[in-house]
Amino acid sequence: MELKDVYYQYPGGEWALKGINLRLEKGKKVAILGPNGAGKSTLLLHLIGILKPKKGAVYFDGSRVEYTKAFLKRLRQKVGLVFQDPDTQMFAGSVFQEVAFGPLNLGLEEQEVRNRVLKALEVMGIEDLKHRPAHFLSYGQKKKVTIASVLAMSPEVLVFDEPTAYLDPKSSAELVEIMEKLYLSGKQIVISTHDVDLAFSFADWIVVMKDGRVLAQGSPVEIFTDKDIISESGLEMPLIVKISTLLKKKGLLKGTFPRNFEQLASKLENDGGD
Prior knowledge:
Blueprint: E1 2-9, E2 15-23, E3 30-33, H1 40-47, E4 55-60, E5 63-64, H2 69-78, E6 79-82, H3 86-89, H4 95-105, H5 110-124, H6 139-151, E7 157-161, H7 169-184, E8 188-193, H8 196-202, E9 205-210, E10 213-218, H9 220-224, H10 227-233, H11 239-249, H12 261-269
Parallel strand pairs: 3-8, 3-9, 6-7, 7-8
Antiparallel strand pairs: 1-2, 1-4, 4-5, 9-10
Helix pairs in contact: 4-5, 4-6, 5-6
């Protein structure tokens, strides 16, 4: 997925994207970070063709995105977006109907639709909710239903806008585990988030945005150990990086930065951090 010199302006507003040049490589979990107003959500909407650049172009798998009904239908079979607020995405009466909506619009046979729905519900661990009214679910349950509705389309790429926003710690951990399993099953994962701890522990590649531009990009360690980037972007340093930096200064930790507390504990237990 690639954006080349992409500009976008909302009607009557300021430019939300200002010359975005970005290539998202296959096989990498990507986290897009930045403060409110940085342009993260606007960028995600370009990835699935909901928004069209005022200038520049978007590419998927080497092909320039065309804003025809036929091309966008094919694109949205391959790239699925999970919105931050599940109520924005949900409209059907029951969970089964919600998850079945996309496959039905592909013109699939009834049995194929049913198989896709049941598989998606199984992956999300919500088979028991299939006959429940969708709008009477908890926020966390709704989030899982919206992900299932995207999975039922069998996309190659899953894009999450603030996936853990408003979730309690347990639900957040469950969702991160699900995203990891989806990645290991062969799905490309792209997330936008304010959560620097999530980005550092989960992603393979970090994109930092500010004022509609890409400020920096690189590996999690490269980005979050660069004080200039942290300062200019207004981001916080992840807690694990703060702790590891302190331990390194005291000579208690050596080698590469751990990405989570489990890795930190393991390094400290083995030869004093080597």
